[in-house]
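User: Please predict structures.

Assistant: First:
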Amino acid sequence: MTERLYDRDSHRREFRAAVLSCAPESGRWAVILDRSAFFPAGGGQAGDTGTLGGGRVLDTEERDGEVIHLCSDPLTPGETVTGTLDWSLRFARMQIHSGEHLVSGTAHRLWGCENVGFHMTERSATLDFDRELTADQLRELERRVNESVWADLPIRVFYPSPEELEKLVFRQKKALTGPVRLVEIPGVDLCACCAPHVEHTGEIGLVRLLDAQRHRGGIRITMTAGRGAWENAFAMGESADALSRLFSAPKDALPAAAERVLSELENARQATAAMERRYTALLAESAHDTAGDLCFFLPGEMSAAAARELAEAGKKKCGGICAVFAGDDETGWRYVMASESVDLRAKAKELNAALSGRGGGSSAMIQGGASAPRAEIERVFYGEDRR
């Protein structure tokens, strides 16, 4: 069985090992070594990648207790090879995973939260807790976790004896068999875990809780740490810079600037809606009563609400269908049709076929889009051959 070097030294990036076996597998080569620093996927953390004997290690898995290196090239059993980890990827994952232990352990210690779900990448992780937390509790959680980071606490990985294990109280997600590997952050967390971690909490750098949503009676938290936290902070900083330029406001005044712009937009929206209502009312008033159909054409920027209002007003002035089209021949037309005498739901298929359109609705009103040119639309509604 492969000696797992990461158990003793999670920061080991390179090692020498003997090849025990190599077998083809779906276009790759499954290699077993006598010792390895490559971590096989487990505990929510993905398997390591890197190089081995000059070829690529594409993934690392555990099968029946054995570490399987899935390689791009074959290796010769009996030869000694050098393995090198993709260290930046491994370290980013360790930062996230150790940060997750801080978050889960702190939430468990303060409020009795149990971690019932966990998924991570090298940039972020999602944690499912079995109970809800308030916004104030989440702020306190993030603050306390980062205080543990700044305290640079040692992280201990060990295999207790069966006698020791019986006396320990630790977090676990499922029943455990065989030797139990524990990860301890003093005063914060003690949890069963098979994955490699940083050696001191200071290596995590920073933990950020990015999002929290109710989930199955509890809460789902999205978090990041280490390099992922820096990348998130950098991206947020760039967004703040861009918004500062757009709003012509300093970054610490962006909320007030956004509220001002939103207020101006809402006032403009209301003014535009009022003008549209007046415009469509004038159109309806100017239309002559007719026993047949009535057709209006509006500019493309007119709102759907304005088109509906005009169709509702126009149907009272005709004995057939009041059709309102907004758009132009180049980009197409949006339509609303209303009637007090025609079952439009039954008529929709025929109308859409004639207008090269799609849409539907109720017997009193249908809505959709048409690609027929205006001349063809007018022919459909006013032409002598319309049935």
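Second:
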Amino acid sequence: MNALEQLKKLTTVVADTGDFQSMEKYTPRDATTNPSLIYQAAQNPKYKHLIDDAVNYAKSSEFEDDRRMRACIEKLSVNFGLEILKIVPGRVSTEVDARLSFRIYDTIWYAKSLMRMYEKEGVDRERILIKIAATWEGIKAAEILEKEGIKTNLTLLFSKIQAIACAEAGVRLISPFVGRILDWHKMTKGVDHIPATEDPGVISVTEIYNYYKKFDYQTEIMGASFRNKEEIIELAGCDLLTISPALLQELENSNIKINAKLSKERAAKSDAVKISLDEMNFRWLMNEDPMASMKLSEGIRNFSKDLRKLELFVGRLF
């Protein structure tokens, strides 16, 4: 078996792309999108029908002028999600507007709007994960949504503190960003390379995995944002890994032997200590972690920037 086939026996593989052909090629169970991926995909003429449908939906008399753009983006996100669900047998993650990352009830409203669209198309809500930035407000919004039967994927997660808060809130899945953690440490240390066995992003996800499994949290862990296949190999055994088409191709072309690096048995023997969090502790510990604070803020800004690009792109069609 090639490395990708071996990995699929240890971990659920998720496609980190908005391109349907890549999903069909690599047959992941789930798929995840974000404004950046949708914006890239929207440039491709083969997806024009999805954009046109969203624009026509937003032009309907149902929406006031100041609501039309948001309606268009919501519908476009769902349109991509619906196409993805025709390909993958599992779930698709659909993202809330990153500009709502510090608004609990606006996030809830947006999430419910997305879910209504999916359910109107006959999609079971178990196949949808609503993707929300792992701010304190985002985590609290997710907690409310989960209690109402809407499953969430907490993204832009860079620290064990964020992960613990998500687990305590009962969210379905978290997406710790391995590669972006590595980027920060390489920049801070002024180095071009850190071995995968010493990779701070790999170490972070390993610590989260051990904590969750040792204390029997049900929240799933999906490693994300990889920079190289070695990071992926070091996290074999994680619940899920979301991987770009380029790295999926590298794994498919490799015959390296892959063994489970993460396991419940090893987690049970880890030195993880239970931590209790409230809002004050969460904000203070995030403040004390310059990497997590910086990368969370940067991620929200970048998702917001790409969302504005997408709005400008579709705005020309109104």
